[in-house]
Design goal:
Elements: E1 3-4, H1 15-27, H2 37-57, E2 64-67, H3 70-83, E3 91-95, H4 100-111, E4 115-119, H5 129-135, E5 140-144, H6 158-168, E6 171-175, H7 187-190, E7 194-198, E8 209-213, H8 228-231, H9 239-277, E9 281-283, E10 294-299, H10 304-313, E11 316-317, H11 333-337, H12 342-346, E12 348-352, H13 359-379
Length: 386
């Protein structure tokens, strides 16, 4: 049996979502663009889900565009905004700690003639809004800063940056994939123009996501072939995935605050136990506000991947960084941007908690970390034993 502590990578289906998906797969097989009753039953599921997602974000249903997930949502926001009218001569401001979905989209607009400024962050992993202000140019047409970091959990000053963007007349996109369901992702309070989310981070299936597009914001579509999603995203909708996203959005509306408080207690219990019992451990982004469920710890004298494997053999699923970078030779770009050395970045482990985790599992994980670190350090040629 494996205890799962990698919820920032993906999440198991909740019981309510599993029931929803099973029902929709059985009963709502029609094409939601068809006018017959089977098609309209599927359309009703899509629009019901759109309403639930809009409610979760405090948006209007017409402002929700369904996608295949967070990566497509980020790509649609960045590429769709910059390409409108041609990318040449345009300028984008982002940070060095963004998810690869944003960084990859920024790299593409550079190839198309735009310029991108990548802002550094401090040791806590948080961008300074003043740096955003200083980076603006007359040609700046998009700022993209994530709401919360997927590796460290550090929460970015999104509402402050949105004020800067609004004053300058610049579009503002935020990747909210890790924040939704863990923070109050109110797009009106945040002031964002574009906001991304993904179903599989929210106890729903992979293959569905959404992009909030504030009324009046224009985007160039990335794919063509139909007038779906108000001509913003062509293709027959993934009805079961969208219905599941709507179901989990409705559940989050009811339980998010209580669950976040519960997870914060578990996260703090895990960190305090490890820090008390294992020497040479530091918390990445310790000086920042963090997601309640996320802990990134740095262990002197070991390789993070070796600890991931040791814990997996002991029955615990954790991560050495972003799941999208699994197998990468290079250390985390996020931790390097925070000023960690390559050795320190490689010695870091991410624990991300979620539904199903409890005190018994947390205590068992802490015990396994203590034992595994001690064993790995005995084998380490660089760790100085007391």
């Amino acid at each position: 049996m494996t205890y799962y502590f990698d919820h920032n990578a993906t999440t198991p289906l909740s019981a309510a979502v599993l029931t929803c998906v099973s029902r929709v797969l059985r009963e709502c097989y029609g094409n939601p663009s068809s006018i017959h009753s089977a098609g309209q039953a599927a359309r009703q599921e899509v629009e019901l889900a759109r309403g639930h997602v809009a409610c979760l974000l405090n948006a209007h249903p017409s402002e929700i565009v369904f996608t295949s997930g967070g990566t497509e949502s980020d790509n649609l926001a960045v590429l769709g905004a910059v390409r409108l009218g041609g990318a040449a001569g345009k300028h984008v401001v982002t940070t060095a700690i963004e998810h690869p979905a944003v960084l990859g989209a920024c790299a593409q607009v550079v190839r198309e003639g735009a310029e991108v400024t990548y802002l550094e962050v401090g040791g806590a992993g948080v961008v300074n809004p003043d740096a955003v202000q200083r980076a603006l140019r007359p040609s700046t047409m998009l700022i993209s800063v994530m709401h919360a970091n997927n590796e460290t959990g550090a929460i970015q000053p999104v509402a402050h940056i949105s004020e800067i963007a609004r004053t300058a007349g610049v579009l503002f996109h935020s990747d909210g994939v890790q924040a939704v369901g863990r923070l109050a992702a109110n797009v009106q309070a945040l002031g964002v123009d574009l906001y991304s989310l993904s179903a599989h981070k929210l106890n729903a299936p992979k293959g569905a996501g959404a992009l909030f597009v504030r009324k009046g914001v224009k985007l160039q579509a990335l794919q063509f072939g139909g007038r779906h999603e108000r001509e913003r995203r062509a293709g027959t909708e993934n009805v079961p995935g969208i219905a599941a996203l709507g179901c989990t959005a409705d559940q989050l509306q009811q339980h998010r605050a209580v669950e976040s408080q519960r997870l914060a207690g578990l996260r703090d219990r895990l960190e305090s136990s490890i820090l008390r019992r294992v020497p040479g451990v530091r918390t990445n982004s310790a000086g920042a506000q963090r997601l309640a469920n996320t802990s990134s710890l740095q262990f002197d004298g070991i390789q993070g991947e070796a600890l991931v494997i040791a814990l997996d053999l002991a029955g615990f699923a954790v991560s050495s960084g972003a799941a999208c970078s699994s197998g990468a030779v290079e250390p985390s770009h996020v931790l390097l941007a925070m000023g960690l050395t390559r050795t320190e970045a490689r010695a870091s482990i991410r624990f991300s908690l979620g539904q199903g985790n409890d005190e018994i599992q947390v205590d068992a994980l802490a015990d396994a970390v203590v034992a595994s670190v001690a064993r790995l350090r005995k084998l380490s040629p660089v760790y100085e034993h007391a």
